[in-house]
């Protein structure tokens, strides 16, 4: 799979503010986890990895065909632990780039994903993220050249925001497309 675009849905947390694991959440449009996986798959990601933790066995049953569940043993340490595990898997399959989103963006529009994916031209130094006005969001596109240095900085509760800011990730305007409206309460 050298030079491929790997999709990642971060869905490991317990959702303590939400009232339960967001990997199991659903609304009138259906379950969030398969929707997020399908968005990345439709955008050309292969494979799509769902990073699971809390209630992982139950969440696995929600995965659509073609999505792969990756259970993170240390998921309770925070989003950085989940991202670290995802980037390690992406690196092991020789991803050219990784497209990362969150399970708790149920209103994320396919157009937003497409806008960010357009930046993937095979350049392994690409670093871009969706923004809604001045608010950073997801998905985030991380070229393979950034995987090793980013892996050295993420873990526990520390995600990639600091790295994206320090390396001036390109902001892709996705205003009004659900890129920064994560859900923390039911």
Strand-residue proportion: 15-25%
What is the highest CATH level, the class? Answer: Alpha Beta
User: Distance between the terminal alpha carbons, to the nearest Å?
Assistant: 39 Å
State the secondary-structure class. alpha/beta
Helix content: 25-40%
N-to-C SSE series?
EEEHEHEHEHEEHHE
- Overall body shape: globular
Total discrete domains: 1
**How many DSSP-defined strands?**
9
Regions with pLDDT < 50 over 5+ consecutive residues?
none
Number of helices: 6
Short description:
The chain has 186 residues and is of the alpha/beta class. The chain has helices at residues 32-42, 56-60, 79-92, 110-117, 147-151, 161-166; strands at 5-11, 26-27, 30-31, 48-52, 67-71, 97-102, 127-132, 135-143, 170-173.
